[in-house]
């Protein structure tokens, strides 16, 4: 255990308590949603860990560590399942948490009971004594199984998020407010912290005889408390993000040979009616315009144009933007204004798509075009 540090302990307390408050606000925020409940629990679990460490230092300064071992607040086994079910809830509006899913949280109950036993009390304290207490091995096994749990659930959560983003590009032409890119931050931070933490403590224990603990222990939990608060705030602001109808099922479809006549029909409608100018164009809308099944249209775009729906529509928008730049009235609008007129909905999406298409930023492209005309 480290020496008490009033400044760092206070910082941990302040940010951990604020994160817990944000978690509670998320839990009661209306309209109530399954995803908000899981997100609030995730923030609570991590804030609780930071608060737990601050409490350790307070009790240590009053020589009450024997009391702390009976009120241990860490719930390591709740992190993985909560993160996983939050990801499922926020990406799939049809997902419904059932009673059988409660089995994923059974290890949390067992962990709570473990912390009330001598295996934990003697094992955790004995880790920093010479010789190491015989119960320490049980404590370390419990901790590493928790890390394995977090790692497995994190991989599952990232897999869902990646598949969700692939699905988005098959169905929407503007996806910036649907991608849930911000969700990668808590997934990476929350899972990476304990993996890195346990590796660091083991390196310190075996290679440096625990001499580094004073330099990294409290600062690491200050970082965790501050980061948890920031993620709690960010999560609260993004809590109303709506799911887009994605279901966690296989994205594979029956492959059929290219259908050139249907591909030509799609191309003709895109060029004549310019549906891509609608910033809210999605696969369903275009399929209705073409009097096709959305699944059939998606397959035609994938097979005949070797693109997903997102790339297919935005390529038309890029070409429309290029044409507007050479039009006489082009100087009446900014580059971003021209992009919005072509169906783009955000600056970041436009810049990203344009650079992937041309290899240049819009301003660099315009400058090159002007130089050529001179």
What does this structure look like?
- The chain is an all-alpha fold and 374 residues long.
- It has 2 domains: 232 residues, Up-down Bundle (Rhopdopsin 7-helix transmembrane proteins); 114 residues, Arc Repressor Mutant, subunit A (Orthogonal Bundle), CATH 1.10.10.
- It is built from 16 helices and no strands.
- The longest helix is centred in the middle third of the chain and has 36 residues.
- Keywords: DNA-binding, Membrane, Transcription, Transcription regulation, Transmembrane, Transmembrane helix.
- It comes from Flagellimonas zhangzhouensis.
Q: What is the terminal-to-terminal distance? A: 72 Å
Number of strands: 0
CATH class of the largest domain: Mainly Alpha
Q: Which percent range fits the helix content?
A: 55-70%
Could you say what the CATH architecture of the largest domain is?
Answer: Up-down Bundle
What overall form do the CA principal axes indicate? Answer: elongated
Question: Low-confidence segments, ≥5 residues, pLDDT <50?
Answer: none
């Amino acid at each position: 255990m480290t020496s008490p540090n009033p400044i760092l302990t206070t910082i941990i307390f302040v940010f951990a308590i604020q994160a817990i408050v944000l978690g509670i606000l998320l839990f009661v925020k209306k309209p109530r949603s399954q995803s908000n409940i899981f997100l609030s629990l995730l923030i609570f679990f991590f804030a609780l860990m930071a608060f737990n460490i601050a409490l350790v230092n307070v009790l240590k300064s009053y020589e009450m560590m024997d009391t702390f071992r009976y009120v241990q607040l860490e719930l390591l086994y709740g992190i993985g399942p909560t993160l996983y079910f939050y990801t499922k809830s926020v990406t799939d509006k049809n997902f419904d948490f059932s009673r059988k899913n409660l089995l994923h949280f059974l290890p949390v109950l067992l962990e709570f009971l473990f912390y009330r036993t001598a295996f934990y009390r003697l094992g955790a304290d004995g880790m920093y004594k010479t010789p190491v207490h015989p119960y320490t091995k049980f404590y370390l096994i419990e901790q590493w199984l928790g890390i394995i749990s977090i790692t497995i659930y994190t991989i599952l959560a990232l897999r869902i998020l990646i598949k969700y983003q692939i699905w988005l590009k098959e169905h929407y032409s503007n996806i910036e407010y649907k991608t849930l890119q911000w969700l990668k931050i808590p997934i990476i931070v929350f899972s990476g912290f304990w993996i890195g933490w346990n590796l660091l403590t083991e390196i310190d224990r075996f290679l440096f005889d625990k001499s580094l603990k004073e330099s990294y222990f409290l600062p690491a939990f200050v970082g965790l408390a501050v980061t948890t608060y920031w993620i709690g705030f960010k999560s609260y602001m993004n809590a109303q993000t709506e799911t887009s109808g994605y279901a966690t099922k296989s994205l594979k479809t029956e492959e059929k040979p290219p259908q050139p006549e249907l591909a030509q029909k799609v191309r003709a409608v895109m060029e004549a009616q310019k549906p891509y100018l609608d910033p809210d164009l999605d696969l369903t809308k275009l399929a209705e315009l073409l009097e096709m099944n959305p699944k059939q249209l998606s397959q035609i775009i994938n097979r005949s144009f070797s693109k997903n729906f997102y790339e297919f529509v935005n390529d038309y928008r890029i070409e429309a933007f290029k044409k507007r730049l050479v039009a006489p009235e082009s100087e009446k609008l900014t580059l971003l204004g021209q992009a919005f007129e072509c169906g783009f909905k955000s600056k970041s999406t436009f810049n990203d798509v344009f650079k992937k298409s041309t290899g240049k930023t819009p301003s660099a492209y315009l400058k090159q075009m002007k130089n050529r005309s001179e």
